[in-house]
Amino acid sequence: MRIAVGSDHAGFDLKSALAEHLAAGGHEVVDLGTDSPDVSVDYPVFGLAVARAVAGGQADRGLCVCGTGIGIGIAANKVDGVRAALVHDVTTASLARRHNDANVVCLGGRITGLAEATDAVDTFFTTAYEGGRHQKRLDEISQYESSRTDPAETTVGGTGDDHERQQPSS
Ligand code: RB5
Fold first, then answer.
1. Do residues 118 and 21 touch, judged by C-beta distance below 8 A?
2. Which of 52, 85, 141, 157 has CA 20 to 30 A from 131's CA?
3. Is 99 annotated as catalytic?
4. How confident is the prediction for the chain on average, in pLDDT?
């Protein structure tokens, strides 16, 4: 798998260790920066770079790390087609793939230790999307990206005649 990786200074050490781990496992890793833990940089630059690589097809998936994983994930999710998920462990990594078909994994370098982060990333890059009932929800996000229409006002995949507000579903 071709994986674009990026971090700010706070995520540099964890990103570098995970990049090395992924490369040793046979993945093609493309490091989009930053290049040092010692120079303060802005996480949106690197989150957007990773997200654009994934959305543009230059990478299959992405890995983003900042101090918490929050800021860089917010930035990555601004790019249409990107589903960036903040994960803390194997459980959240697995669910991000199985339910959300997440294509960018985000971690906090100041939050998650290397061993747990490595297990989470391995899980993320080996777990399949389940589809089924989850697909309609992803379609609602895609629809919003393309038309800025509220999914509650329309029926994704329907006839287009049904504009009744949807009821909550499980
Ligand atoms: C940098 O100090 C820190 O704010 C950043 O890495 C990240 O945690 C933001 O969400």
1. yes
2. 52
3. yes
4. 93
Q: Is 118 left (phi over 0), alpha (psi -120 to 50) or beta?
A: alpha
Q: Which amino acid is at 140?
A: E
User: Which tens digit of pLDDT belongs to each residue from 112-169?
Assistant: 999 999 999 999 999 999 999 999 999 999 999 999 999 988 755 544 443 444 555 5
Please state the atom number of ligand 1 nearest to the C-alpha of residue 110: 8
**pTM attached to this predicted model:** 0.91
Q: How many CB atoms lie within 10 A of CB 69?
A: 30
Which among 66, 88, 106, 134 is annotated as catalytic?
66
φ, ψ for residue 112 (rounded to 5)?
-110, 130
β-sheet bridge partners, residue 31: 5
CB-based contact 5:125 (threshold 8 Å)? no
pLDDT at 71: 99
Indicate which residue's Cα is closest to atom 8 of ligand 1: 67
